């Protein structure tokens, strides 16, 4: 690779040749060349601490040494890379390990579908299956929900800008208020129950309700365990399937492997992707309660369902879940992060921030418009990668790889604090 100007990496090639749709390279305007653990380096040799973790696809860090070792050995040995959904040893090993390390210890029973390698693929398959099983067409999604960019996934996504991109009406869905959407006083489950019970409500009985336990893209809105249990109860009362989209919050992000473990609910269908492959390689799963697995062979398929390189790293990544120490570490770092963020919002009251989230999915929501963006922009100039979330980009999101060391976490938080201090002084 030629480096035209080692002092300041140029984005010229991207501006000239890549579509206007590109976005993260606008927030983080440099050219990255290397990555290890929680650090990315650009072509000028500048190091950036990563509090973004590939939007949750890099929970085990960049180029995780153990995962990389297994991956390289598999490739060296001419292991199968692409296999559609043929049976391979790599897939067999993953399926067995997922069963014994994740499902069995949690008392969960699911058939595993490989729907194609993205989160949206998993969501699409979940919606299709729920409609097939129930024979109903409507699906309920929630305000500020995010489920992906394909038409089905968009139809249960809240964001107006993203929905408009569909270019066609997004049908067969109803949006209902997430917990706390109207005010803390309104019980949104009771509100939904009203709609479902009343034959004059204009809302027909849905096939499924799709929910995120914490809305990541939607602004780190956290559903309480109690609300999730009430939602499950509501689904049971009406024979509605409960789909948990754990694409971003799963794989340990909130402190447990599945984000719904704390609530003790048992979703009918679970969507997983992002970090399930472990190494940042594309992979997705749709977990299906066995009685619901009424697919005909090949009824939902896809060319890249057999990404064996991801199966290898996914199986290896499950080693993190063989004891409780990894989960305990996430909880401890999550508490530390919460205290630190609380201190920051108290130190700069002018910015009117509040702390949201749990585990290593937290952030600061700013009441003043544009502050979250300014803070993230400033942090980047100081070597920290952070993204905003929320419909109006009002939340500065802290989501480092789960393997981050406490000292690294503190170093990044010091940069965040400094950025907030500077932005507050400029107000
Ligand atoms: C990222 C995400 C998706 C979509 O995943 P893609 O791999 O981008 O298709 C779906 N649901 C949630 C909750 C996500 O965070």
Structure description:
- It is globular, with a radius of gyration of 22 Å.
- The chain has two domains: 23-50 and 324-426, Aspartate Aminotransferase, domain 1, CATH 3.90.1150.10; 67-321, Aspartate Aminotransferase, domain 2 (3-Layer(aba) Sandwich).
- It is α/β, with parallel strands linked by helices and 427 residues long.
- The protein has 14 helices and 17 strands.
- The two termini are 42 Å apart.
- The strands form four sheets. The protein has a seven-stranded mixed beta sheet.
- It binds pyridoxal-5'-phosphate.
- Pyridoxal-5'-phosphate is lined by residues 55, 118-120, 123, 146-148, 212, 216-217, 245, 247-248, 273.
CATH level-1 class of the largest domain: Alpha Beta
Helices, by number, come to 14
Shape: globular
**Unique ligands:** pyridoxal-5'-phosphate
Mean pLDDT: 97
Question: How much β-strand is present in the residues?
Answer: 15-25%
What does the main sheet amount to?
A: 7 strands, mixed
The CATH topology assignment of the largest domain is Aspartate Aminotransferase, domain 2
When the domains are counted, the total is 2
Give the tally of β-strands.
17
CATH superfamily of the largest domain: Type I PLP-dependent aspartate aminotransferase-like (Major domain)
Question: What ranges have pLDDT less than 50 throughout 5 or more consecutive residues?
Answer: none
Helix content: 25-40%
Strand order of the largest sheet: 4-12-11-10-7-5-6
Rg over CA atoms: 22 Å
